[in-house]
Design a protein that fits this description.
The model has no long low-confidence stretch (mean pLDDT 91). It is built from one helix and 13 strands, in the order αβββββββββββββ. It starts with a helix and ends with a strand. The chain is 9% helix and 72% strand. The radius of gyration is 19 Å and the shape is elongated.
Length: 227
């Protein structure tokens, strides 16, 4: 919670600075959420499915008059991924940092590059007194396309597709694990300043050595306020 408050405060200060710097700079800040399930397919050990985790955190978007935009978000799990078999339980906590800069060729279509880091801390308890814990990161550059279309001033749709040049890193083991990300949803304006999004996002990864496939999928929700 402390990290959440610090990051949110930093975003609010940054957005206020942009807003005062130029009247024609568009700044939006708010909260994003992603409720997603995790499925891990290991060619040796089989498939492991986790109960859904809810990630919530602050986000900011800044669009300049030149149609260049900057975005940042930091989502943290308020509920963990869980896998239970009898008395044994595996729990995984996740934090996501996303940074991006892009350019809108036309109001409806743009391209962006960025950086993603997903940090996961896990702990296992067999229910009989034995427990262990660890952590791993999935991080790297991102390149993507996005599009949006408005049916009216109050309602529209959006979509994005990205390629993630990510690497899996844990103590004693590292491998390239590139992935793809797709999101499709709707956007509504509740007022001149307040808007919301509802979508569905899927992320797929595959390790180049282990051939383990990871899939994260679920509903997204966002509430943004324009300064």
């Amino acid at each position: 919670m402390k990290r959440f408050i610090v990051f949110l405060a930093a975003l609010l200060v940054l957005s206020s600075s942009f807003a005062f710097a130029a009247d024609d700079v568009k700044v939006e800040a708010g909260i994003k959420m992603w409720n997603n399930e995790w499925e891990s397919k290991d060619p040796i050990d089989g498939t492991l499915k986790f109960d859904a985790a809810l990630l919530i955190g602050p986000a900011i978007s800044v669009t300049l008059p030149s149609n260049v935009f900057f975005e940042a978000s930091y989502l943290m799990s308020v509920t963990d991924y869980e896998k239970t078999e009898g008395p044994a339980k595996l729990e995984v906590e996740r934090d996501d940092l996303d940074l991006a800069v892009g350019y809108m060729f036309i109001p409806e279509v743009g391209i962006y590059v960025g950086y993603r880091k997903s940090s996961m801390d896990w702990k296992f308890n067999d229910g009989a007194g034995f427990s262990e814990s660890g952590s791993f990161d999935l991080s790297g550059p991102v390149i993507g396309l996005r599009g949006n279309y408005s049916f009216s001033e109050m309602f529209g749709v959006y979509a994005s597709a990205a390629y993630l040049m990510t690497e899996w890193d844990e103590p004693g083991f590292t491998e390239d694990e590139p992935g793809t990300q797709f999101e499709l949803g709707v956007k509504a304006k509740f007022s001149k300043a307040l808007s919301g999004t509802l979508g569905y996002k899927v992320e797929d990864f595959e390790g180049d050595k282990s051939k383990i496939k990871e899939k994260f999928s679920g509903l997204t929700l966002g509430i943004m306020y324009a300064f």
